Amino acid sequence: MELVFTSQMSKVKQLADALSHEISIGEYAPGDPLPSINGLSRQYGVSRDTVFKAFNELKMQGIVDSAPTKGYYVSNAVHRILLLLDTYSPFKYQLHDAITRNLAANYKIDLYFHQRSEELFTKIIRDSVGRYNLYLVMNYQNDVYSEILDLLDPSKVLLLDFGKFEKERFAYVCQGFDQTLYDCMVAGLERFRRYRKIVFVFPEGSEHPISCIPYFKRFCKDHDFPYSIVSEIDPSALAAEKFSLHHVGAVVSVTPCWCYGAETIDMDPLMPKAIWGFNGTERPGAVYLASALAGHNQKGLPAFGIYGRDVQDMGDRTIPEDVREKLLRFGRAAVAVAQMRGKSYLSIGSVSMGIAGSIPDPGFFQEYLGMRNEYVDASEIERRVQLGIYDPEEFRRAMDWTEKYCKKNEGCDYNPAHLVYSREEKDAIWEYVVKMTLIFRDLMIGNPKLAEMGFEEEAMGHNAIAGGFQGQRQWTDYKPDGDFSEAILNTSFDWNGIREAFTFATENDTLNGVSMLLMHLVTNRAQMFADVRTFWSPEAVERVTGRKLEGRAADGIIHLINSGSCCLDATGRQSEDGRPVMKPFWEITPAEAEACLEATTWHPASREYMRGGGYSSCFLTLGDMPVTMCRVNLVKGQGPVLQIAEGWAVNVDREIFEIINRRTDKTWPTTWFAPRLTGQGAFRDVYSVMNNWGANHGAISYGHIGADLITLASMLRIPVCMHNVDPSEIFRPSAWTAFGTEPEGADYRACGNYGPLYK
């Protein structure tokens, strides 16, 4: 096996892909042993750990397995598929998604686009000969047969959307554009009767088959419709229609020159807007920027202005670093706004223990986030458990995974003897909490498998982008708590592999759930849910433990802890350049997922508090990680406000942890948080941060993302009442400067003036 490592992806990924390719072309058949870890390490000059991780990645994919005396061997053949499409479009995305969703894990798809270039098409096909088990191909041009296809085995080719040439040698699937168009228009005849004329827009140079035009004309003549065929319509109307059709969620205007700003600006009040005006003397990009922003402000359409610090030459096509950062900051926030719109927050149960954040405020969700609230009584969990309304195959797979990674790490049972469950009772609880996890997820997003089982209504889900579970107390007084389910849902992996984390709030704290959601949408990382439990001053720590806090913790720490619902990513066992991190889900390796699981123990819940039992995750977050804590709070007469505190998850002396941990519930996960201090206001010292925090919970994300949250909050019209973000990083709409020179006061006045985004 030849392999030359590149810098474009990790060596683990490259080695795993190379082995997968060898298996797919038959170099190794199912049951064949693979080269040893030591052998591959010597052959390619990589560490044994790299080889081990590559094998584990293939193992997670179900391609290889291992046995004590046999080593690693092929368990399943790999089938590689080339999916060669013309250009990207929502339809092509749906096609790719439908194919991948319905294939087993040992089928690997390589997706390419040829952009209707014959040269590129030919190169991709030529380079792929003999490398794939199946070829799904869209041609570079309609009604033209490419002879390069003769290089492929016809039995392994499926042609997609090919024209009307002879295709007997190949299997093919073609869309109908001609008679099919006529038949579809006939089917909609009564709707067409509402209109006086039908206009067919067929742009010049369109790749759409021109053969459909005679069928359009025939329909109009057969049914006495006046018609016309045009190549274009009014650009602004066309843009608005296209934006709607393709679900455009934000607009960035880029111009080096002058245009008629008041006539060309987007008028959708729900669409976040930004304008980049080129900083150069040859063309008035900056002049247009100022004019267009004035037009937006005059019309009550706040827009973000982007103007580079340094003058660029007219032919310079680079994006300056300061412009790049603002474009990305705007983009992350705008995409978050679009993703929330039309989704729901699902409350399972009701208000937990009188916690204010557990009281869903439909006005806040609807007017500020564009979301709806949906509700399910907790009894629905028990109904689905009793009636078996969950995928039984997935349940068995989930239990196997839980046995392998969680149950084996079951921690000490600290309950008094008379409250300790038997082994049989504990095993039954493990099964129950796994079923709860499946049910929570199905309630949020649905599950087509349930429809196949005859539960069509349950299969639909609630279109929830976030949710929460009441738990305490009515449920937990007699049923297992939600700790396991909440921890797994909030984590970036489970029995189905590595995936995007859900946003799921403990105690149905809807406002902390929203806080987690905002940070998840701008980072694509799992989020931590925690009690903002205790401020430990340096003096208090020394008094209680006899030891001093050091490093970033020297000024004091805040103890973040909750009953086991925190995401397992927060163990800090993912790494980058030897540092602990919490990665976006697509960067997490199977080995890192296993490391997070290995660092987590699962203790039986305290039955003096959780009478129904359950299992709480327990770990200590590794520092030194940059993190941001935030919280949305509702204030009567004011509305929502956002708190932000950037800082670090820090390491403290192990003995300090052990002593402090014994003073609270030692079965829960702990994160030590040291906020960045400014010496002023709420960030004068660590005590002030704790003293000014507005609720019992906080949401914590990896990274210093306060600036992104401030930008997002301004789009939603939520003022920021507390933050320690460098003023130079704050990016709000240009209109905010018209509300005063003091930034935070201007923020309140601007948000009050414009009102909620969806008012």
Provide the descriptors you would attach to this structure in a database record:
759 residues; alpha/beta; Arc Repressor Mutant, subunit A; Rossmann fold; 5 domains; 6-stranded antiparallel β-barrel
Structure description:
This protein is an alpha/beta fold and 759 residues long. It folds into five domains: 11-74, Winged helix-like DNA-binding domain superfamily/Winged helix DNA-binding domain (Arc Repressor Mutant, subunit A, Orthogonal Bundle); 79-173, Response regulator (Rossmann fold, 3-Layer(aba) Sandwich); 179-232; 237-340, Rossmann fold (3-Layer(aba) Sandwich), CATH 3.40.50.1070; 349-754, L-fucose/L-arabinose isomerase, C-terminal (L-fucose Isomerase, Chain A, domain 3), CATH 3.20.14.10. It has 26 helices and 29 strands. Helix 6 (179-187) runs parallel beside helix 8 (212-222). The longest helix is centred in the middle third of the chain and has 23 residues, at 423-445. The chain is globular, with a radius of gyration of 29 Å.
**Shape descriptor:** globular
Strand order in the largest sheet = 19-20-27-26-25-28
- Put simply, the count of helices is 26
CATH secondary-structure class of the largest domain: Alpha Beta
CATH topology of the largest domain: L-fucose Isomerase, Chain A, domain 3
CATH superfamily of the largest domain, please? L-fucose/L-arabinose isomerase, C-terminal
Q: Give the domain tally.
A: 5
Main sheet, how many strands, which sense, barrel?
Answer: 6 strands, antiparallel, barrel
Our measurement of the CA-to-CA distance between the termini, rounded to an integer number of angstroms, reads: 62 Å
Quaternary structure? single chain
Average of the residue pLDDT scores: 90
